[in-house]
Amino acid sequence: MKKIRIAGVPEHFNFPWHMAMEEGAFEDRGIKVEWIEVPEGTGRMCKLLEEKETDLAIILTEGIVKSISEGNPARIVQGYISSPLLWGIHVAAESRFQDLSDLEGTKAAISRFGSGSHLMAYVLAEAQRWNTAELSFEVIHTLSGAVEALENGEADYFMWEHFTTKPLVLDGVFRRLADCPTPWPCFVVAANQNFLDKDSAALRHVLEIVNNYTREFKMIPSIDRTLANRYNLDLQDIREWLGITQWTQDQLNLQTIDIVQDTLLNLNLISNKLDPKELLTNL
Asked: In the prediction, which pLDDT does 13 show?
């Protein structure tokens, strides 16, 4: 049995992978999947790929593009979610901030540098015409760390996926001021180069399996109720999320890579732009 390590966040986006594991789809192909739960998000997964502690990661597009541009020997092997990610912009429920404009010059909580919460703070600042050179950050690692940092005043706002944080909004822990969608497809599947060199045949099997699940995911009977129960989310919120979320079974196109790199370069988040083909691999 071939063992493959796959890292991902503990969120509803990744339920197709868990369905495939629980139904024995990988084992039927002689593959044993070790799922690595990474609540710290993309910045941590980039490190796992770089240090060969995971073979694959379901990871945010902007985070892995930045990491590869900085020398991470990883490659994007396929797109995963082709729709944008809806980032909620949150403050503590009792904070003085009432409008998005109130956040100019304040401190953002981020899971770690190079994470989506870090990079999207720049995208937000650029859109609001704030001075990105004056952005400041508090590293909080996880969602629970963000709750603590905002409540204690160690940070002022926190950007995280809209529906994942919705229960905290409903419970009166966070207040959402606005949403900020990514300007590109949000999730991709990335592999470390060592795994690609040794196990490309096994990877093709893995992708074929998960693609079979994502291709028909929305048509699964009562999938909305299953997701709501599994991730403790409101049923109507899950239905709204399903309505705006699209999976893909294709590789990212070169134009998308160009858009991501140009944005990061303009925000001084990367120092050089690679040929888009250097970030992708075609199996």
From this structure: 96
Please, what sign has the CA dihedral across residues 50, 248, 110, 278? positive
Cβ count within 10 A of residue 52: 14
**Is the predicted pLDDT of residue 148 greater than 90, yes or no?**
yes
pTM here?
0.93
Which residue from 84, 82, 85, 86 is spatially nearest to 247, judged by alpha carbons?
Answer: 82
* Superfamily of structural domain 2-84+184-278: Periplasmic binding protein-like II (3.40.190.10)
Could you tell me the residue ranges of all domains in the chain?
2-84+184-278, 86-181
Q: Indicate the CATH number of 86-181 among 3.50.50.60, 1.20.950.20, 3.20.20.70, 3.40.190.10.
A: 3.40.190.10
pLDDT at 65: 97
List pLDDT tens digits, range 200-234: 999 999 999 999 999 999 999 999 999 999 999 99
47 vs 224: CA distance, rounded Å: 33
Domains 2-84+184-278 and 86-181 equal at CATH topology level: yes
| The pLDDT of residue 139 | 96
As separate numbers, helices (DSSP H) first and strands (DSSP E) second, the chain gives 10, 10
Q: Which residue has the tokens 């403790």?
A: 232
Instruction: Identify whether the C-beta of residue 245 lies closer than 8 Å to the C-beta of residue 185.
Output: no
Query: Using an 8 Å Cβ cutoff, are 157 and 103 in contact?
Result: yes
* Neighbouring-strand partners of residue 160: 88
The values of phi and psi at residue 183, to 5°, are -85, 20
For 80-107, write each residue's pLDDT tens digit.
999 999 999 999 999 999 999 999 999 9
